Amino acid sequence: MALRPAQEPSPSESPADLDRANPEAEIAARAAAYRNWGRWGEDDVLGTLNFIDAAKRVEAAALVRDGIAVSLAQAFDTEGPQKGWRRRTNPVHTMTDTGVDAERGNQGFPHGIGGADDVISMPLQCSTQWDGLGHIFDHGNAWNGRRAGDVVTSEGDLVTGIEHAASVIVSRGVLLDVGRHLEPETGELADGHAITVADLESCIAAQGVSSAIGRGDIVLVRTGQYGRTRREGWGDYAGGPAPGLSLTTAGWLHRTEIAAIATDTWGFEVRPNEFDVPAFQPLHQVVIPNIGLTIGEMWNLEALAAACAERGRWDFLLSAAPLPITGAVGSPINPVAIL
């Protein structure tokens, strides 16, 4: 009888075990271990959003008990956090018709009717948003093993554009208030705090049964950084140091079979990243093109955290549809949690 080849050991889930001088190897090990390519067929465009099915939505709808709706969006205005990195600016809102025009009767409408119109110009990832599957590549590979240049061109994401998710992202949401759990006095993690699997699991245990994670759930991780910026000013919120998920959580994100995850920070993962040599968003490189995980960033989780803590339950119906912008690799959203 032929012996089966020994399996590679699973990558460590302890940040202390990371080779801080070798991000390439640490990323590659997790990409290989948790890759979902082909799991939903070679034509798949949704990745882990496939875990949301009709039964999951029915389950989620049953969580609405109080009829309380909470918006999880930051404001979309010129007072946002962006500072121009990679041409990301804050939204610019311009009126094209105003009440002044109506008062002066220069709009050309009959019988005294007047109106107002406006236009907005903004990068699609300048405030509360989803990262689509075409947003990040791994060594020139996009989600499901496609070549990046075959997926995203100057015409947009020709394969996994965000429009495919327009009617998909309605599911059970679960808030993990890691900031409140680990720092009960302030409710806020320090910048640079790497959230581990142990942190996530201890938070779930402390919050109780309503925060147990299941297939198709959308997990929201509150670090408290957004609340801190609203008190102290944006500072380096966009691109600077932040609490966030450790690279070592990649296995947890894979095996829990969650549909998506979002945080209240600019970049989802801990910053600075966990290496002593140049590295940039290594967890993105694992989870988007390899796991097929949709990531949300810059969500405002403050009011939701207060509502959940008051009720002692941490799950809810979550609706977070992207705008169906053809070929977009991300989308602004106004997520709504209904308790």
From TrEMBL:
One of its GO terms (molecular function) is arylformamidase activity. Residues 1-20, 79-112 are annotated as: Disordered. It comes from the Bacteria. PANTHER family: CYCLASE (PTHR34861:SF10), PTHR34861. It comes from Microbacterium hydrocarbonoxydans. InterPro entries: KFase/CYL (IPR007325), KFase_sf (IPR037175). SUPFAM superfamilies: Putative cyclase (SSF102198). This is Putative cyclase. GO terms for biological process: L-tryptophan catabolic process to kynurenine.
